[in-house]
Request: fold
Amino acid sequence: MRKTEKKFHHWPSFTTSLLCAALVLVGCEKDAPKPPETSLVCAATVESFDKARRDGNASYLASVRFDNETDLSFKVGGILVGIGAEAGHDWDEGTPVKAGTVLAELNQVDFTNALISARARAELTAKVFSRFRKLRAADAISQQELDVTEADWRTAQAQFDQAQQNLRDSRLVATKDGVVLARHVNSLVTVAPGQRVLRFADTSLMSVELGLPDRLVGRLTPGREIDIEVSGLEYLPPLRGRVSEVGVAATGDGRLFRVVVKVPNPNGLLRSGMTARIRVEDTAIANANAACVPLSALVTFPSSDSANRKEQSQLGVFVIENGKARKRAVTTGDIFNSSIAISEGLRPGERVVTSGTSFLYDGAPVDVAAETVAAK
Reply:
C-alpha cells in the first residue's frame, strides 16, 4: 500500500495573496487632509486719500538719536585703575555724567615719574645751554660745541612737553554733559594706545531724522526752525528745532529725502530711540480714485511680469475677502503721515492686513484681531 503524500506547496501562494490584499486595504485608508490653519491678523479699512488729508498738513514720523556718539580711547597705554564714578565701581551703561567728570584713568605713578624726570632733564640742559652761550660770547668754546648743547636743550624741552601731554592723556574727561553708552573694558586691565574704552554720547544736542517725498523736501531748508512733537513727551508743548541737513538724493527703497533737525536738550528729556512727529504743510491734490493704506500693509511679492526681467519683485497688499487673505499688486504714490497713497489696485472701503503678513499666502484663512482706519 502506498502512503498518501500531503502536499502543502499551495499554502505559501495563498498566504501571499492575503497579505497583498491587506496591504491594499491599508493603503486605501488615507488620512483626511487637515484644514489650513487660520492666521490672526490686524487689519485697516482703506480710506480715500482726500478724506485722510483733513487739515492740509502732512505729519511724518521721525527718529531721535544722539547728535554726537564717540568711542573714547587713550593716546597712551597703561594700567586702567579707574573707569567709574568711584573706585571699585565701573560705569554702568546708560549712566549720565556731567561735564568735567573723569571717565577713565590710567595709573598716574608712571606718568608722574616720567614727568619729574623730564622736567629735571630740561632744567639741567637749560642751565648748561645758558652757560655755554656765555662761554661762546667770550670765544672760550667753538660754535659747534654751542650747537650741540642747544640741541640737547631743545630735545630735553620736547621730552618734557611730551611728558606733560602724556600725563593729561592718561585721563579721559567728559567735555560736555552726556551719557555712557557702552563700557568696553573693566578696571585693572592693561590697555593699549587707541584701544576702545568707552562709548560716550553728548546729550546737550539731539538729532531728529525723517524722510520726506520730493514734493515736500523743498519746504524744509537748512536754518529753518520747526516744531517737533515727541511721542514720549506729550505732556510738554512741541520742541523747537532747526533744520541742519537736507538730502540731495532720495533713498532707493522709499524715494524719500533724508532731513536732519537739531534740537537742544539741556534738561536731558530727549533720549536716543524716541519717536517724534514733524508736520509739514501739504497742499498736493491726489486723484479722485487714490486710496490710502498704512505703510505697514505693504509687502513685497515676486514679480509676475516675465517681460520685465529686471524687476524681481513688486509691491502689494493682502486684501481680506470672505475670511481669506488675497494677494494683490498695487501702484504706490506719495507718503502721507504714516500712510501711503495707492493710485492703482485698491478701492476705499476694502480691508487690508496691517500686521501678521509674514506667514500669509494667497488664499490663507484669517481672523481679524483688531481693525483701524487706514490713515490716522
